Amino acid sequence: MAASHLLVCVILWTYYYISHGRDDHGFVTVSTRSFQPEAVCSDSRVTTLEPRRATVSVPLVHRHGPCASSQDSDEPSFAERLRRSRARVNYIRSRASATGGTVTTRGDGTNVTIPAHLGGAVDSLEYVVTVGLGTPAVSQTLLMDTGSDLSWVQCAPCNSTACYPQKDPLFDPAKSSTYALIPCHTDACRNLAADGTGCTSGSDTQCGFAIKYGDASHTSGVYSDETLTLAPGVTVKDFHFGCARDQDGSNDKYDGLVGLGGAPVSLVSQTSSVYGGAFSYCLPARNSEAGFLVLGGAPPSANDTSGFAFTPMSVEMQTFYVVKLTCISVAGKQLDIPPVALATSKGLIIDSGTIITELPTTAYTALRTAFRSAMSAYPLLPPNEDLDTCYNLTGFSNVTVPTVALSFEGGVTMDLDVPNGILLDGCLAFQDAGLDDPGILGNVNQRTFEVLYDVGHGKVGFRAGAC
Fold it and tell me: Secretion signal: which residues (predicted)?
């Protein structure tokens, strides 16, 4: 069994290795400039989506990169970004183990492409999409989150003590002709409710919501019905979302959040009758490059993969998308990781909001050892609070980086982008998840891949070089 496992990983990894045009020794030499965003906007890396997969395609820009009309200079430090990601990991793990993280209520056929881009200047390394809400549509820039279900925006009236500043205008329900409150004791409210009632007392008439996140921030308000505009002429009628009027915590100047998890209240589930419960995205390598989010796009048959390689996927706790890691290769060589060490793990949660990939201890230790050996020509920095394999690349005009490939159940391999799918600020974008905790496939490793979640068929696909 072990020999068969090794053979599958090597053969598939070699296929991707060749398709990316890399040398025969498993290393790629890149300019250190390739780690940084360009000063000018570029969308040249976005590949054309097949017409049958997307009837609407929207140009994508990074919210705070050079493609944006206005930019925010208030960018957090690398350490602060990692701290926020760590808080998110703790939240996901608590949710996955059903011990924490709460979403509660209280009484008070075709496909669409919409923007997705790295939100570095919203004080995080998460990705954002820009959509329209209401009639007439008001532009809202929202965090795109596969680890959340309920979508929400800040709503007027909301003063500076109850809401945090945002660059876009607050969504004002009073100015929309299609806005409606969702009453208590409706199916929509029951879908939202943790306890199945949707309201806290018999006198309540409006369905409310309250969300507490892993970093102790929270948002609350009224559950609402509105028209969501994904692209010009493409709308979602009766879109259910949270109209938030009370915020608390170190929020990030974004307008709200769009939930892409697996629960009934998510955008994916709400639009499943139209888009088949499938969605995909491509996260760009750098802030100066474009990416996309697609609703729909699942291949019509098992034989039609449309350039994707698919692996089985499960949905855990109604929200999280989980895959099984089978092996890892560094510099073209499969690591000596006992298959049982991965088979007994709880899988990897694919998450758009977590920065760093977390691997089971045995797998991470093997990866770190191999990567450090391959990078021995460069000075290794002392470990920081989050990452233990960082390099001082000052003075180097070029860096030779070993390739890293992750293989999943069914013989699917991701040959990670070099350098931006492997290194982040000179650090290996992996860390130890521990022995018992589920792993997480972070957003750095996902860069430049189109990741297609075919929820209805229980699989996820990867297409390299999509953006």
Answer: 1-21
Question: pTM for the complete prediction?
Answer: 0.87
432 carries an active-site annotation: no
State the catalytic residue, choosing from 145, 204, 252, 454.
145
Judge whether 351 counts as a catalytic residue. yes
Angle at 315 between CA 220 and CA 267, to 5 degrees: 45
Phi then psi for 411, rounded to 5 degrees? 75, 30
Contacts of 454 (CB under 8 A, 6+ apart): 277, 278, 298, 299, 310, 313, 460, 461
DSSP code at position 35: G
Query: For the purposes of burial, counting CB atoms within 10 Å of the CB of 196, is it exposed (0-12), middle (13-18) or buried (19 or more)?
Result: exposed
* pLDDT tens per residue across span 65-75: 666 544 555 66
Catalytic residue among 123, 351, 388, 454: 351
> Over 70: is that where the pLDDT of 379 sits?
yes
Q: In terms of pLDDT, which residue wins out, 54 or 146?
A: 146
- The C-alpha atoms of residue 351 and residue 280 are separated, in whole angstroms, by 12
Number of Cβ atoms within 10 Å of the Cβ of 394: 8
461/299: higher pLDDT = 461
Distance, CA of 73 to CA of 127 (rounded, Å): 17
